[in-house]
Specification:
The chain is of the alpha+beta class. The protein has 8 helices and 17 strands.
Protein backbone atom coordinates (compact mmCIF):
# COMPACT_ATOMS: atom_id res chain seq x y z
CA UNK A 1 0.00 0.00 0.00
CA UNK A 2 1.38 3.41 -0.95
CA UNK A 3 1.87 5.72 2.01
CA UNK A 4 -0.03 8.97 1.61
CA UNK A 5 -0.96 11.86 3.86
CA UNK A 6 -1.61 15.57 3.57
CA UNK A 7 0.92 16.84 6.09
CA UNK A 8 4.17 15.74 7.72
CA UNK A 9 5.67 17.37 10.81
CA UNK A 10 9.34 18.27 10.30
CA UNK A 11 11.53 20.17 12.76
CA UNK A 12 8.60 21.92 14.39
CA UNK A 13 6.55 22.71 11.30
CA UNK A 14 3.71 20.97 9.48
CA UNK A 15 4.56 20.87 5.78
CA UNK A 16 2.98 19.36 2.67
CA UNK A 17 3.59 15.63 2.24
CA UNK A 18 5.41 16.12 -1.07
CA UNK A 19 7.76 18.72 0.41
CA UNK A 20 9.07 16.52 3.22
CA UNK A 21 12.47 15.94 1.67
CA UNK A 22 16.09 15.75 2.84
CA UNK A 23 19.46 16.17 1.15
CA UNK A 24 21.22 13.13 -0.33
CA UNK A 25 24.11 13.79 2.08
CA UNK A 26 21.88 13.33 5.12
CA UNK A 27 24.19 11.50 7.52
CA UNK A 28 21.67 8.93 8.72
CA UNK A 29 21.01 7.87 5.13
CA UNK A 30 24.67 6.86 4.80
CA UNK A 31 25.50 5.47 8.23
CA UNK A 32 22.21 4.51 9.89
CA UNK A 33 22.41 6.53 13.08
CA UNK A 34 18.86 7.49 13.94
CA UNK A 35 15.98 6.54 16.21
CA UNK A 36 12.31 5.95 15.56
CA UNK A 37 9.04 4.86 17.09
CA UNK A 38 5.93 3.07 15.88
CA UNK A 39 2.71 4.29 17.50
CA UNK A 40 -0.97 3.70 16.77
CA UNK A 41 -4.01 5.92 16.95
CA UNK A 42 -7.25 3.98 17.23
CA UNK A 43 -10.87 4.93 16.80
CA UNK A 44 -12.41 3.47 19.93
CA UNK A 45 -15.84 2.05 20.62
CA UNK A 46 -17.24 5.38 21.80
CA UNK A 47 -16.30 7.01 18.47
CA UNK A 48 -13.37 8.98 19.89
CA UNK A 49 -9.86 8.67 18.47
CA UNK A 50 -6.95 8.20 20.84
CA UNK A 51 -3.22 7.55 20.55
CA UNK A 52 -2.22 4.48 22.54
CA UNK A 53 0.55 4.87 25.14
CA UNK A 54 1.89 7.99 23.47
CA UNK A 55 3.88 9.18 26.48
CA UNK A 56 5.72 5.87 26.79
CA UNK A 57 6.59 5.91 23.08
CA UNK A 58 7.74 9.53 23.18
CA UNK A 59 9.86 8.81 26.23
CA UNK A 60 11.48 5.81 24.53
CA UNK A 61 12.30 7.93 21.48
CA UNK A 62 14.06 10.48 23.67
CA UNK A 63 15.87 7.66 25.50
CA UNK A 64 16.89 6.03 22.20
CA UNK A 65 18.37 9.32 21.04
CA UNK A 66 20.26 9.61 24.32
CA UNK A 67 21.63 6.07 23.89
CA UNK A 68 22.63 6.93 20.31
CA UNK A 69 24.42 10.16 21.39
CA UNK A 70 21.84 12.21 19.48
CA UNK A 71 20.39 14.60 22.09
CA UNK A 72 17.03 15.99 20.99
CA UNK A 73 16.14 19.63 21.47
CA UNK A 74 12.53 18.46 21.78
CA UNK A 75 11.18 17.11 25.07
CA UNK A 76 8.85 14.16 25.63
CA UNK A 77 5.93 16.60 25.75
CA UNK A 78 7.10 18.21 22.49
CA UNK A 79 7.20 14.84 20.75
CA UNK A 80 3.72 14.03 22.05
CA UNK A 81 2.33 17.32 20.77
CA UNK A 82 3.97 16.79 17.38
CA UNK A 83 2.27 13.38 17.08
CA UNK A 84 -1.13 14.76 18.05
CA UNK A 85 -0.75 17.72 15.67
CA UNK A 86 0.22 15.41 12.80
CA UNK A 87 -2.80 13.14 13.28
CA UNK A 88 -5.14 16.14 13.53
CA UNK A 89 -3.63 17.87 10.48
CA UNK A 90 -4.39 14.78 8.39
CA UNK A 91 -7.88 14.25 9.83
CA UNK A 92 -7.03 10.64 10.61
CA UNK A 93 -9.31 8.72 12.96
CA UNK A 94 -7.24 5.54 12.88
CA UNK A 95 -3.59 5.48 11.81
CA UNK A 96 0.01 4.47 12.41
CA UNK A 97 2.44 7.18 13.56
CA UNK A 98 6.19 7.19 12.87
CA UNK A 99 8.38 9.72 14.69
CA UNK A 100 11.91 9.65 13.25
CA UNK A 101 15.02 11.37 14.63
CA UNK A 102 18.03 11.52 12.35
CA UNK A 103 21.34 13.28 11.74
CA UNK A 104 21.07 15.83 8.98
CA UNK A 105 23.60 16.78 6.32
CA UNK A 106 26.84 18.68 7.00
CA UNK A 107 29.90 16.68 7.90
CA UNK A 108 30.53 13.25 6.45
CA UNK A 109 32.63 10.56 8.10
CA UNK A 110 31.44 8.54 11.03
CA UNK A 111 31.30 10.97 13.94
CA UNK A 112 29.79 14.08 12.31
CA UNK A 113 29.61 15.68 15.73
CA UNK A 114 28.32 19.03 14.47
CA UNK A 115 25.45 17.72 12.35
CA UNK A 116 22.00 18.79 13.48
CA UNK A 117 19.66 16.21 14.99
CA UNK A 118 16.41 16.52 13.08
CA UNK A 119 12.94 15.21 13.91
CA UNK A 120 10.01 14.25 11.71
CA UNK A 121 6.60 12.73 12.44
CA UNK A 122 4.70 10.88 9.71
CA UNK A 123 1.23 9.33 9.98
CA UNK A 124 -0.68 7.09 7.61
CA UNK A 125 -3.46 4.46 7.64
CA UNK A 126 -1.95 0.99 8.14
CA UNK A 127 -3.55 -2.35 8.90
CA UNK A 128 -2.01 -5.09 11.00
CA UNK A 129 1.63 -5.63 10.05
CA UNK A 130 1.34 -9.41 9.67
CA UNK A 131 -2.06 -9.22 8.00
CA UNK A 132 -5.67 -9.83 9.00
CA UNK A 133 -5.28 -13.47 7.98
CA UNK A 134 -2.43 -13.81 10.44
CA UNK A 135 -4.45 -12.17 13.20
CA UNK A 136 -7.32 -14.60 12.64
CA UNK A 137 -5.55 -17.86 11.84
CA UNK A 138 -1.92 -17.44 12.85
CA UNK A 139 1.30 -17.29 10.87
CA UNK A 140 4.19 -19.61 10.04
CA UNK A 141 7.61 -18.69 11.40
CA UNK A 142 11.14 -19.98 11.24
CA UNK A 143 14.16 -19.73 13.50
CA UNK A 144 16.41 -17.30 11.70
CA UNK A 145 19.97 -18.07 10.67
CA UNK A 146 20.77 -14.52 11.83
CA UNK A 147 21.36 -13.99 15.55
CA UNK A 148 20.07 -10.97 17.43
CA UNK A 149 22.77 -8.44 18.34
CA UNK A 150 24.94 -9.14 21.38
CA UNK A 151 24.03 -6.65 24.11
CA UNK A 152 27.50 -5.10 23.95
CA UNK A 153 27.62 -4.95 20.15
CA UNK A 154 24.41 -2.96 19.70
CA UNK A 155 22.17 -1.08 22.06
CA UNK A 156 19.21 -3.41 22.57
CA UNK A 157 17.09 -0.91 24.52
CA UNK A 158 17.34 1.74 21.81
CA UNK A 159 15.02 1.67 18.82
CA UNK A 160 17.88 2.66 16.52
CA UNK A 161 17.43 2.70 12.77
CA UNK A 162 20.65 1.06 11.55
CA UNK A 163 20.31 -1.84 13.96
CA UNK A 164 17.22 -2.93 12.02
CA UNK A 165 19.38 -4.20 9.14
CA UNK A 166 19.68 -7.30 11.33
CA UNK A 167 15.88 -7.61 11.34
CA UNK A 168 15.56 -6.81 7.64
CA UNK A 169 17.94 -9.62 6.64
CA UNK A 170 16.13 -12.10 8.89
CA UNK A 171 12.72 -11.00 7.59
CA UNK A 172 13.76 -11.24 3.94
CA UNK A 173 15.26 -14.68 4.50
CA UNK A 174 12.07 -15.90 6.14
CA UNK A 175 9.77 -14.52 3.47
CA UNK A 176 11.94 -15.87 0.64
CA UNK A 177 11.53 -19.30 2.22
CA UNK A 178 7.76 -19.00 2.45
CA UNK A 179 7.37 -17.95 6.09
CA UNK A 180 5.67 -14.81 7.34
CA UNK A 181 8.10 -14.08 10.17
CA UNK A 182 11.47 -14.98 11.66
CA UNK A 183 12.26 -15.74 15.29
CA UNK A 184 15.71 -14.57 16.30
CA UNK A 185 17.96 -16.16 18.89
CA UNK A 186 20.43 -14.20 20.97
CA UNK A 187 24.19 -14.69 20.89
CA UNK A 188 23.88 -17.46 23.50
CA UNK A 189 21.26 -19.34 21.47
CA UNK A 190 18.20 -18.43 23.53
CA UNK A 191 14.98 -17.01 22.08
CA UNK A 192 15.20 -13.24 21.74
CA UNK A 193 12.37 -11.75 19.68
CA UNK A 194 10.86 -11.54 16.22
CA UNK A 195 12.16 -9.14 13.62
CA UNK A 196 9.82 -6.46 14.97
CA UNK A 197 7.85 -8.09 17.78
CA UNK A 198 8.24 -9.57 21.25
CA UNK A 199 7.44 -13.24 21.79
CA UNK A 200 5.12 -15.00 24.25
CA UNK A 201 4.76 -18.76 24.68
CA UNK A 202 2.17 -20.78 26.60
CA UNK A 203 3.03 -24.07 28.30
CA UNK A 204 0.53 -25.73 30.64
CA UNK A 205 -1.44 -22.48 30.97
CA UNK A 206 1.62 -20.46 32.06
CA UNK A 207 2.68 -17.57 29.83
CA UNK A 208 6.42 -17.23 29.24
CA UNK A 209 8.33 -14.35 27.68
CA UNK A 210 11.98 -13.37 27.33
CA UNK A 211 13.14 -11.18 30.25
CA UNK A 212 13.38 -7.44 29.78
CA UNK A 213 17.09 -7.37 30.65
CA UNK A 214 17.99 -9.74 27.82
CA UNK A 215 18.80 -8.70 24.24
CA UNK A 216 15.30 -7.53 23.39
CA UNK A 217 13.63 -4.20 22.85
CA UNK A 218 11.51 -3.42 25.89
CA UNK A 219 8.28 -3.48 23.94
CA UNK A 220 5.43 -1.21 25.03
CA UNK A 221 2.88 -3.69 23.66
CA UNK A 222 4.80 -6.41 25.52
CA UNK A 223 4.31 -4.47 28.75
CA UNK A 224 0.63 -4.00 27.91
CA UNK A 225 0.08 -7.73 27.36
CA UNK A 226 1.87 -8.66 30.60
CA UNK A 227 -0.38 -6.23 32.48
CA UNK A 228 -3.57 -7.46 30.82
CA UNK A 229 -2.62 -11.11 31.34
CA UNK A 230 -1.95 -10.66 35.05
CA UNK A 231 -5.22 -8.75 35.46
CA UNK A 232 -7.01 -11.80 34.04
CA UNK A 233 -5.36 -14.18 36.44
CA UNK A 234 -2.74 -15.69 34.17
CA UNK A 235 0.70 -16.49 35.54
CA UNK A 236 3.39 -14.68 33.52
CA UNK A 237 7.00 -15.81 33.83
CA UNK A 238 9.93 -13.89 32.38
CA UNK A 239 12.46 -16.58 31.55
CA UNK A 240 15.00 -17.56 28.97
CA UNK A 241 13.50 -19.91 26.39
CA UNK A 242 15.08 -22.36 23.96
CA UNK A 243 13.93 -22.97 20.43
CA UNK A 244 12.81 -26.52 21.23
CA UNK A 245 10.76 -25.20 24.16
CA UNK A 246 8.79 -23.16 21.61
CA UNK A 247 8.26 -26.30 19.51
CA UNK A 248 6.46 -28.08 22.36
CA UNK A 249 4.46 -25.13 23.68
CA UNK A 250 0.70 -25.25 23.27
CA UNK A 251 0.64 -21.65 22.02
CA UNK A 252 3.07 -19.02 20.75
CA UNK A 253 2.18 -15.47 19.80
CA UNK A 254 4.01 -12.26 18.96
CA UNK A 255 3.08 -8.73 19.95
CA UNK A 256 4.04 -5.25 18.85
CA UNK A 257 2.56 -1.90 17.88
CA UNK A 258 2.53 -2.89 14.20
CA UNK A 259 1.79 -6.62 14.62
CA UNK A 260 -0.65 -6.06 17.53
CA UNK A 261 -1.32 -9.63 18.84
CA UNK A 262 -0.59 -12.29 16.21
CA UNK A 263 -0.59 -16.06 16.91
CA UNK A 264 2.07 -18.40 15.46
CA UNK A 265 0.70 -21.69 14.16
CA UNK A 266 4.01 -23.33 13.20
CA UNK A 267 7.73 -22.89 13.72
CA UNK A 268 10.24 -24.62 11.44
CA UNK A 269 7.45 -26.81 10.02
CA UNK A 270 6.53 -27.96 13.53
CA UNK A 271 2.88 -27.38 14.37
CA UNK A 272 2.33 -25.36 17.52
CA UNK A 273 -0.44 -26.87 19.62
CA UNK A 274 -3.48 -27.53 17.43
CA UNK A 275 -2.09 -25.42 14.61
CA UNK A 276 -4.72 -22.78 15.33
CA UNK A 277 -4.80 -19.79 17.69
CA UNK A 278 -5.15 -21.14 21.23
CA UNK A 279 -7.46 -20.04 23.99
CA UNK A 280 -4.94 -17.81 25.77
CA UNK A 281 -3.77 -16.23 22.51
CA UNK A 282 -7.38 -15.47 21.62
CA UNK A 283 -8.08 -14.17 25.11
CA UNK A 284 -5.13 -11.78 24.94
CA UNK A 285 -6.16 -10.68 21.46
CA UNK A 286 -9.66 -9.96 22.68
CA UNK A 287 -8.42 -8.08 25.74
CA UNK A 288 -6.04 -5.99 23.66
CA UNK A 289 -8.51 -5.09 20.94
CA UNK A 290 -11.27 -4.37 23.45
CA UNK A 291 -8.88 -1.97 25.09
CA UNK A 292 -7.61 -0.13 22.01
CA UNK A 293 -10.66 -0.38 19.73
CA UNK A 294 -13.57 -1.29 21.97
CA UNK A 295 -15.31 -0.04 25.06
CA UNK A 296 -12.84 -0.95 27.81
CA UNK A 297 -12.13 2.00 30.09
CA UNK A 298 -9.92 0.40 32.74
CA UNK A 299 -6.73 1.92 31.32
CA UNK A 300 -7.75 5.33 30.02
CA UNK A 301 -4.44 6.62 31.41
CA UNK A 302 -2.77 4.89 28.46
CA UNK A 303 -4.62 7.02 25.89
CA UNK A 304 -4.10 10.49 24.52
CA UNK A 305 -7.55 11.44 23.27
CA UNK A 306 -7.58 13.65 20.20
CA UNK A 307 -11.32 13.77 19.48
Amino acid sequence: MAIKADKIWMDGELIDFEKAQVHILTHSLHYGLGAFEGIRCYKRGDGRSAIFRLREHARRLVESCHIATMPLTWSVDDVMKACVDTVKANNFEDCYIRPLAFLGDGEMGLAAMSNKVRLAVIAWPWGSYLGDEGIQNGIDARISSFSRHHINAAMAKGKITGQYVNSILAKREAMADGYQEAIMLDSSGFVSEGTGENIFAVYDNVIYTTPFHEAILGGITRDTIITLAKERGYKVVESRMTRDFLYVCQEVFVVGTAAEVTPIRSIDHRQIGTGKPGEISKAMQAAYFDLVKGDATNHDEWFEFIS
